[in-house]
Amino acid sequence: MLPPAAPALDVDDLVRETLPLVGHVVRDVAARVPAHVDREDLMSAGLLALAQAAHSFDPARGVRFAGYAATRVRGALLDELRGLDWASRSVRRRARQVDEAHSSLAVALGRAPTDLEVASTLGLGAAEIAAHRDDVARASVASLDSLDGGTVDELLPSSGPTPLDSLVDRERVAYLRDAVEELPERLRVVVRGYYFAERPMAEIAAELGVTDSRVSQLRSEAVKLLRGALIASLDTERSQQPAPARSCATRRKETYYAKVAGRRTFAARLTDTGPVAVPA
């Protein structure tokens, strides 16, 4: 008799559970591109890549979906950026060659090299260097959407949080609330009393019937658990690093992390707008 087939993966569940990953990757990529690049375009490309990754994912390969999806989303964003770049790959490649030659000559000569010296090093003529600079200048243009007649202040990137930043912060705070609620009782009492109620450590120690130093140890233990839960839930790359040998303590932590992750749905966390004290 053939073994029972593995249950089919629910594509909608994969997308829903990994949706925050797109925002994290977009933020990382957007921080290193010009301000006129539209984040909504990047988000659209990332979401499409996530959906495609969910449809093509094969769990039999032994790869976690989050890692597989992160690679597909990042690749889609790079393709989107290449499509927005006015310069061809040959122009960008020549630009790197000219910059590297310019830097090497500056170090060797102790001064800024001339165009003729750079051209000679690359085996080019001075006219070719000038033409190359024209190509780069034509490619270095701003988006028309960023030049809509507003003031200079309006064209500068805002220093305040974006809607995406606010969404990510709200999700992080909600995960922290869940992590606090899932702590063992004594650790939860310490965290709530010390960070939320700002009670003296001696008062918490008296309530628990322990010494001040023991409360300090419990506080440190709780903070480590909270930090680990946030990393496991939000930091995809760090949470995928190889784990050490699975001791009893490691298994207890993993059980705790799983409880935090499964406490609420993604949508429920986004509706959580209350403040929370973040342990240092």
Care to describe what's here?
There is one protein chain. This protein starts with 10 loop residues before the first helix and ends in a 10-residue tail after the last helix. Helix 9 (185-196) crosses helix 11 (212-234). The protein has helices at residues 11-30, 39-56, 65-84, 89-109, 115-122, 126-139, 152-155, 163-181, 185-196, 201-208, 212-234, 236-239, 248-262, 266-270. The model is unreliable at 1-8 and 140-153 (pLDDT under 50). With 280 residues, it is mainly alpha-helical.
Query: Low-confidence parts lasting 5 or more residues at pLDDT below 50?
Result: 1-8, 140-153
Span between N and C termini? 57 Å
Shape assignment: elongated
Strand content: under 5%
Measured as a percent range, the helix fraction is 55-70%
- Main sheet: strands, sense, barrel: none
The helix/strand series, from N terminus to C terminus, equals: HHHHHHHHHHHHHH
Mean pLDDT: 76
Cα Rg: 26 Å
Count of DSSP E strands?
0
Instruction: Tell me the structural class.
Output: mainly alpha
Give a quick set of tags describing it.
280 residues; elongated; 0% strand; 14 helices
Architecture blueprint of SSEs:
Layout: H1 11-30, H2 39-56, H3 65-84, H4 89-109, H5 115-122, H6 126-139, H7 152-155, H8 163-181, H9 185-196, H10 201-208, H11 212-234, H12 236-239, H13 248-262, H14 266-270
